[in-house]
Amino acid sequence: MNSATPGVPQVPLLDDDTIAFGEEDNANKQFVHPYIVFFHLIFRSSAIVVYILCGWFSDSFIASFVLVILLLSADFWTVKNISGRLLVGLRWWNYVDDDGKSHWVFESRQNRVNRNESRLFWLGLILCPLIWSGFFLICLFGLKFKWMLLVLIALTLTGSNLYGYVKCNFGAKENLQTATKDFLKQQLLQNASSFMFSQPAPPTTANTGVV
Predict the structure, then answer these.
(1) Which residues pair with 104 in a beta bridge?
(2) Is 92 left (phi over 0), alpha (psi -120 to 50) or beta?
(3) DSSP string, 68-113
(4) Does the global pTM surpass 0.85?
(5) DSSP letter, residue 13
(6) Alpha helix ranges (H) inside the chain
(7) For residue 18, what pLDDT band results from cuts at 50, 70 and 90?
(8) What residues does each domain of the chain span?
(9) Nearest residue to 26 via CA among 94, 95, 117, 126
């Protein structure tokens, strides 16, 4: 299933959309894209680990700030452009039309999703913003305002990917449910109208004769 906004320039969601011979059971394998799963998790966790341990290796706030931002940026780009597209068949993106207006597009194609890869993708996608939210509370109550700025940037980047993929996943299901409801309503109206406005068949007259 591939859902997209009408009038939006289409870009192939999956580059390898054609299933090769002998690969029809990819959905039942343990991992189809092991390297993508690895980088999806390593970028997500490395930013958190560096944030926790940066004070042990360096007293420079600027160096720690830049390193965590680089890891967060790599994570944001990887999740948005690679891991979401290949692991769960989802993609969100933005384009500017000829009038200069910005449009957001959410696409879904989940007919070739591996279950194990999907679970790890959503686990990392949801867990990391929760961890950064915990760091935000620690900075807030500890009055660590310079670190709070870094945590807010992390929440913005990780939260943007979370919102985009949740919108892709559940938005596509809502569109499918809406189409199903519209089809059922149309069928009910057609059946009701045919029942109410159908002309009854004329009675048949039997010819009787006297012998």
Answers:
(1) 94
(2) beta
(3) HHHHHHHHHHHIIIIIHHHHSSEEEEEEE-TTS-EEEEEEE--TT-
(4) no
(5) S
(6) 34-57, 61-78, 84-87, 115-142, 145-197
(7) very low
(8) 30-189
(9) 117
